[in-house]
Write a structure and sequence with these properties.
Blueprint (H helix, E strand, L loop, with lengths): L1 H49 L8 E6 L2 E8 L2 H11 L7 E8 L1
Parallel strand pairs: 2-3
Antiparallel strand pairs: 1-2
């Protein structure tokens, strides 16, 4: 009886430690993903501002889990496609939602 109670307490302790370390890992993964998204957003903004045609526009860029969203207005449909082509070449972009529209 004493051995089974001791064994139960040890197993419960191991379970708690495992659970808590799993939470920390999840939090670390979330923090890393958030940092990765910030890096992708910065790279996308840099790529868009380096383009002589697109640098004159105010294009909002947001990234969540590698999914990039572009919002704003440009002068032509050609510029919408140009932005998509540039963004899709940026490392870390897993999906692009191009919500740019013509003025």
């Amino acid at each position: 009886m004493f051995k089974s109670k001791l064994l139960s307490k040890v197993l419960i302790g191991i379970s708690l430690v495992t659970s808590l370390s799993g939470c920390e890992t999840t939090q670390n993964q979330i923090m890393k993903r958030h940092q990765d998204d910030a890096v992708v957003t910065a790279k996308v903004k840099e790529a868009l501002t380096k383009d002589p045609t697109l640098q004159k526009y105010t294009i909002d860029v947001s990234t969540v889990s590698g999914e990039v969203v572009l919002r704003g207005h440009v002068d032509s449909l050609e510029d919408v496609y140009r932005a998509a082509k540039i963004v899709n070449k940026v490392e870390g972009v897993e999906f692009l939602l191009n919500d740019l529209s013509e003025k």
